[in-house]
Write a structure and sequence with these properties.
- The chain is about 75% helix and about 5% strand.
- It has a three-stranded mixed beta sheet with strand order 2-1-3.
- Helix 2 runs antiparallel to helix 3, helix 10 runs antiparallel to helix 11 and helix 11 runs antiparallel to helix 12.
């Protein structure tokens, strides 16, 4: 993968957000708190869905996989970023940079696929309630979740190899807080046309394809819900989808903006802010969004608290 690049480049410098020590300390505290909340919230959701009988359903099995992805996804970048706030030299090795990039894209792709599976789960639950247990059995959900993880593993192999094979013979400063394709392409002195085309194609297929399938599911859901005569029934049906729809809108919107666009429109400062949204804030908000209006999760949490306090 790394060919002769090691002789030209042995490490990169992650610029991050600011060189001001006071700003760095403030950001370190803020992101440390956010990361801690992310871990606690997602680990708690994983625990509840594993051990509470009421939550041993296909929907919560998929939600457990989403929480696991969010834990790994944010861990792929945040710890390195936090160490950079405290270190004088914000370096990352050449190999470490591309390992980080691979895992970021692997976990991000897997989350795209899993969110699509979750939208299909809601479609079946609302449009075919009598056949839900048959169509979305535990066995089927396990296979779909496994397929999401495996697809995520395979997706970033191509552009990780292509980007790592480019020549980096100019600046070593990556204008970002983690290694990603757009800022690395800005440093390369090689022709990156094929790499950019591969990335745009893959991003369009993964992000665009997943979003279209998710959108199709929700169009079918909306059509089905509008046929319900009872206003209360329509409200209940929509409420079961509201959390997932919120997550989908934030995640696909930010991912699409970062990767499905021409290289010339790259803006480092803008990309950093958007990356914070999908890489740090969304994994923290997911367990809150899915739990806030979910009575089953609230009830399971109360039971767990009462059990541990005895």
């Amino acid at each position: 993968m790394i060919r002769n690049n090691v002789t030209r480049q042995t490490e990169f410098i992650l610029v991050g957000f600011s060189d001001d020590p006071k700003v760095q300390i403030g950001l370190f505290v803020a992101f440390s708190i956010t990361y801690t909340i992310t871990l606690i919230g997602n680990i708690l959701l994983v625990t509840l869905t594993m051990y509470e009988v009421a939550l041993k359903t296909p929907m919560y099995m998929l939600l457990r996989n989403l929480s696991l992805l969010d834990i790994f996804f944010t861990t792929a970048t945040v710890p390195k970023m936090l160490s950079g706030f405290l270190a004088e030299q914000k370096s990352i090795s050449f190999v470490g940079c591309f390992v980080q990039m691979y895992f970021l894209h692997f976990l991000g792709s897997a989350e795209c696929f899993l969110l699509t599976v979750m939208s299909f789960d809601r479609y079946v639950a609302i449009c075919f309630p009598l056949r839900y247990a048959q169509l979305m059995s535990t066995h089927v959900c396990r296979r779909l979740a496994f397929a999401s993880w495996i697809s995520g593993v395979l997706c970033p192999v191509g552009h990780t190899v292509l980007v790592s094979s480019l020549s980096y013979c100019a600046s070593t400063e990556v204008n970002h807080f983690f290694c990603d394709v757009p800022p690395l392409l800005q440093l390369s002195c090689s022709d990156s046309t094929i790499t950019v085309l591969e990335l745009l194609t893959l991003a369009a297929l993964v992000t665009g394809g997943s979003f279209l399938l998710t959108l199709t599911s929700y169009v079918c859901i909306i059509i089905s819900v509008l046929k319900i005569r009872s206003a209360e029934g329509r409200k209940k049906a929509f409420s079961t989808c509201a959390a997932h729809l919120t997550v989908v809108a934030i995640y696909f919107g930010t991912i699409g903006f970062i990767y499905v666009r021409p290289k010339s429109s790259y803006s480092p400062d803008q990309d950093k802010l958007i990356s914070v949204l999908y890489n740090i804030l969304t994994p923290m908000l997911n367990p809150i969004i899915y739990s806030l209006r979910n009575q089953e999760v609230k009830k399971a949490l109360r039971k767990l608290v009462l059990r541990t306090s005895r």
